[in-house]
Amino acid sequence: MKRSFNRTPGIFFGILAISLWVLVSAGMAGEMITADGFAAMTGGNKVIARDKAVDDALRKAVEQAVGTMVSSDTMTESYKVIHDKILARTSGYIEKYKILSEGPEGDLYRVRVQAEIGRADLTNDLNALGLLHVMVEKPKVMIIMDEKVGGLYGTTGSESVGQAESTMMEKFINAGFNVVDPDTAKANITRDKALRILEGDDKAAAAEGLKYGAQVVITGKAFSKNAGGKLYGTNMQSIQATLQARVIRTDTAKVIASKSATGAQAHIDEMQGGALAIKEASEKLSDELIDAIVKQWSGEVYGRSQEITVMISGLVSYRHLAAIKKMLEKETQGVKAVHQRSFVGGIAELSLDYGGKSTNIADELAARKFTGFRLEPTNVTPNRIDIKAILNK
After folding, report:
1. Does residue 148 sit in the same domain as residue 277?
2. Bigger pLDDT: 19 or 48?
3. What is the C-alpha separation between 384 and 250, in angstroms, rounded?
4. How many domains does the chain have?
5. Longest dimension (CA), the chain
6. Separation of alpha carbons 52 and 42, rounded Å
7. Per-residue confidence (pLDDT) for residue 192, from 0 to 100
8. How does pLDDT run across 278-310, given as a tens digit for each residue?
9. Which of 63, 98, 128 represents a domain boundary (last residue)?
10. Listed residue (152, 278, 276) closest to 226, CA to CA
């Protein structure tokens, strides 16, 4: 087997079997995986055993990559297909590798390798076999839009017909998202809070979304108006609509995207024409917002570094915080950097550059035995972990 393969992954974008869209950027580096391989030293022959151990390590590296992209049920049900079609051509997915350590261990020869796996090729083949079930799901979405059809019957009055929310909800559902029913959400939001959300209060929008288990809140305004009287020689009127919307992550209150779109319709009735113009603009806007959200989430699927906020309360000593930081920096796989944002009154805020799911970090912190204390996760979302330090009795 050759020691390295140099290829530049191209852009792959498609709708997967579970409707999760995946974007692999051109030139994106492959996933780095460390794996151990073993082979028996028959007759004491180290050379042959070494080659077999390298092959075993590289196969296990590819198997690990497959495991992050395929559901456990599918791995079990389709084990033979994955083994015969994917693991049998290990070299096709290895961009390059290096041997970290090697040597005899009893009757076995052990080799540890660090391999760079080409995700684009692996994704294509798994998708072609109908096996690709990415572990990160699309986020649940809440949509809150302020809508007005203006200029009714030649007056300055306006009326809401709910067209923007219903159109956007339909588009997101068809794209495979779970959507909070807007009517249910609005019925339980106070008027003051609704106004704050619609006026751009990202924290208020995030807090409301969390109540309904939504990872993303889309909020904005839609407005339609007569563009200048009747069209020449007819009773038809030119109606134009404008939509503006922001996408907010509920766990961090950060804005993922801010987009706008327009629509136009000729209609004899201002109300119906306005609704149709808003529908047209909503369809355009929804496509752009779905693309923005999918790109954000696909970064987590493919192990690219993301920012995870870790809030730790109940700390009685800075030494406890130092122990936690050391564990995250030195002993937690996938953590590229730990940034301390603050430490005030026994509460610390850390920011992690991490190439994985926040639940993995929460699991490791909860299982770790620290000297004098333990950690208990109290809230875990895709980009934030809240943890309480509890002294040992």
Report:
1. yes
2. 48
3. 10
4. 3
5. 98
6. 11
7. 66
8. 999 999 999 999 888 877 765 554 444 578 899
9. 128
10. 152
